[in-house]
Design a protein that fits this description.
Helices cover 23% and strands 28% of the residues. Strands 9, 10, 12, 13, 15, 18, 22, 25 and 26 form a 9-stranded mixed β-sheet that branches. β19 and β20 form a beta hairpin. It has 649 residues and is of the alpha/beta class.
């Protein structure tokens, strides 16, 4: 009997020494999606279930989703989750559960330039209580990552805060795995300072970006900026080393640069990862590398691929799971300066270095759009990326919509701020231009002095080229801005070239290329939208002869009445109605009312001006004319109508 107990003890003892296995192996960070200032700025259709299927097809079994989580709430004191945020994230989790993927909800409320607030627990605790309450019944394939890269805060202080957050989550949700990380930017160096948390359902995380001068050359967010640093090799090769840029002389970068022969080696990379390996083995805990990567713009692609292979294979050799930074973006899996199309632009050699499956790739062929397309309808349309910049409040999901659930609202921007829609891939609009297509949208504002610009921007194809603009001004001659929805419809051929900003101003040169259009923008070009708010809905490019919303309304509502009295002598009144439907007004258009004699000669112009929708009455005095038949013609935009009248003297 004692022998049996001894054997059982040995089994239990040695089992406790076996390293715990992660529930996932490898994947990517899906960046630039939920990293918004509020749920109303999330471009939700940037990714779809198909994108998750694509990622899974690479061989990935986990996606880390960075979320600007504190901005996804209704704010203090309760930090309840914003219902729009939970609507979006619930859909994402539905996809993940259907595809049997793992999803890390990474609290990426993070500013590299700002130290972590010692009082951040006052936000973290209620935020994660709200998250745990909402997601506690969802799949165990969902993971909670407390905070990305805490920095500028002491290890002991951060570790205590993290313990309090763990306790708060566990009071609500005892099932889901929590991901915890050290201070010092989630550095492997700081793992050793983490306490032995009693919770046995944790995964410990660290990030890896060494050697930093190689992985971050060209980065603008570092201090100092590394934009000027380019051509750093990996591994170190004296013959390939660039000159240290003048703006980095005298900074910490100079010391790192001079020591690169020691830090920029394969052996050094493995030596640093060994710090995380030692932590894993000493603590007997699950650990994963949540971020690693090399910034694309200034790095050599061959060296970059080698680095990924070295890091990935060493992590896997030590049974450390990972998610690379990132999928699309500056550290991504796609070719440099490409459109990021899954079937055309994947960096095949990089996928191989990461041990991912390599899907078949083909050359992308840009063909002219032969039909119209949507830009916004409740959501930014598929194939278009939201790429806005504004100091004002931008909401893609305002409930005050003209059609459907949502519209865009934009208030208090600064001059040159822009709501931008980036075509992915770029568009060839030559066919639509040559076949008289229009762009149309509903617009509402309550200040008659509102003026802004819409424009298409073409693609800069080389260093000699610039991103040229083709623009149209929206002002009181286009929309009344009287607090009511109005429909605006503008032929593409009416846009005019307005030059280019490319780190300097370039006047128009007739070089805009409708065959390489990359952006559609709504721009506070004139600095006129400050202290104002506009609403925009249902943005479409379309064939007006087939689906012109405005023309349909005009055809239905446009009306020229018979003059009264008729016959007449010497004067009569002519009444006409310019289109409106309830409170929804059509934009003002050039209006002409002209009287002709029986031979078609112009007798008198009664109206020749831009007129708003409404009913009008005009007096025609024929005292200087002879008895006979006369015609009057009303023209409103492209629509016209003719009637006959009789003068008897």
């Amino acid at each position: 009997m004692k022998k049996a107990y001894r054997i059982l003890f040995i089994i239990i003892f040695f089992s406790s020494l076996v390293a715990q296995e992660n529930p996932f192996n490898k994947g990517v960070n899906l960046t630039g999606w939920f990293q918004a200032n509020s749920p109303t700025e999330i471009h939700f259709t940037k990714y779809t279930k198909q994108d998750f299927e694509n990622i899974k097809s690479l061989g990935a079994d986990v996606i880390r989703l960075p979320i600007n989580l504190h901005s996804m709430t209704l704010g203090s004191p309760g930090y309840e989750l914003h219902p729009l945020f939970t609507r979006f994230l619930d859909d994402v989790i539905d996809w993940v559960e259907e595809l049997e993927l793992n999803l890390i909800l990474d609290n990426h409320t993070f500013d590299p330039a700002t130290s972590t607030d010692p009082n951040i627990g006052d936000i973290l605790i209620p935020v994660w209580e709200s998250m745990a309450e909402h997601f506690k019944e969802r799949s165990t394939n969902i993971y909670y990552e407390i905070l990305n890269e805490p920095h500028g805060i002491g290890d002991a202080e951060w570790n205590a805060i993290q313990q309090n957050v763990i306790d708060a989550i566990r009071a609500i949700d005892s099932v889901h795995t929590i991901i915890v990380g050290p201070a010092g930017w989630n550095s492997y160096n700081n793992l050793k300072y983490m306490p032995e948390y009693e919770d046995d359902n944790l995964i410990y995380t660290f990030h890896f970006y060494d050697p930093f001068l190689f992985t971050h050359q060209g980065a603008s967010w570092t201090d100092p900026s590394l934009v000027s640093l380019s051509g750093m090799p990996f591994p170190y090769n004296a013959s390939n080393m660039p000159q240290l840029p003048n703006d980095l002389v005298g900074t910490w970068v100079a010391g790192a640069f001079n020591n690169y022969q020691n830090d920029g080696t394969i052996g050094k990379v493995r030596q640093l990862i060994d710090l995380a390996v030692a932590f894993k083995e000493e603590r007997n805990v699950k650990i994963f590398c949540g971020e690693f990567g090399v910034y694309i713009p200034n790095s050599n692609n061959t060296d970059r691929i080698l680095w990924y292979n070295i890091v990935r294979t060493y992590l896997e050799a030590n049974e450390i799971a990972w998610t690379s930074w990132d999928y699309h973006g500056g550290f991504g899996l796609f070719e440099k300066n490409s459109s990021g199309l899954f079937n055309h632009d994947l960096n095949v050699n990089l996928l191989g270095a990461l041990g991912f499956n390599v899907p078949p790739q083909s050359e992308f062929e840009l063909k002219p759009d032969s039909t119209g397309f949507g830009i916004y309808s409740d959501f930014i349309e598929s194939g278009i990326a939201g790429n806005s910049y504004t100091k004002g409040e931008l909401n893609f999901y305002n409930n005050n919509s003209k059609e459907g659930d949502y519209c865009i609202s934009w208030s208090n921007p600064s001059q040159y701020d822009a709501v931008r829609f980036q075509f992915t891939p770029i568009k060839d609009l030559t066919y639509l231009l040559n076949n008289n297509y229009n762009i149309g949208f509903w617009i509402k504002g309550d200040n008659p002095n509102i003026k802004f610009q819409i424009r298409f921007v073409d693609t800069k194809i080389n260093d000699e080229d610039h991103p040229w603009r083709m623009s149209y001004d929206i002002d009181t001659f286009v929309a009344l801005f009287n607090g009511q929805w109005q429909y605006v419809e503008i032929p593409l051929s009416d846009f005019y070239e307005t030059g280019s900003w490319d780190n300097a101003w370039y006047s128009p040169q007739g070089l805009f290329d409708w065959g390489n259009v990359s952006l559609f923008e709504i721009v506070d070009e004139f600095g006129n939208l400050s202290q104002n708010e506009i609403f925009i809905d249902e943005i479409n490019v379309f064939d007006p002869t087939a689906t012109g919303i405005e023309e349909e309304i005009i055809a239905k509502e446009f009306m020229l009445f018979q003059n009264y009295p008729n016959p007449f002598n010497p004067a009569t009144k002519i009444k006409f109605t310019l289109p409106s439907v309830g409170d929804e007004y059509i934009r003002p258009r050039q209006t002409q009312l002209i009287v002709y004699d029986i031979l078609g000669r112009e007798v008198q112009t009664l109206v020749n001006e831009v007129k708003a929708p409404g009913t009008y009455e005009v007096r025609f005095n024929a005292s200087q004319l002879s008895t006979g038949v006369y015609y009057y013609r009303l023209t409103y935009g492209k629509k016209y109508e003719i009637k006959q009248m009789l003068l008897i003297k």
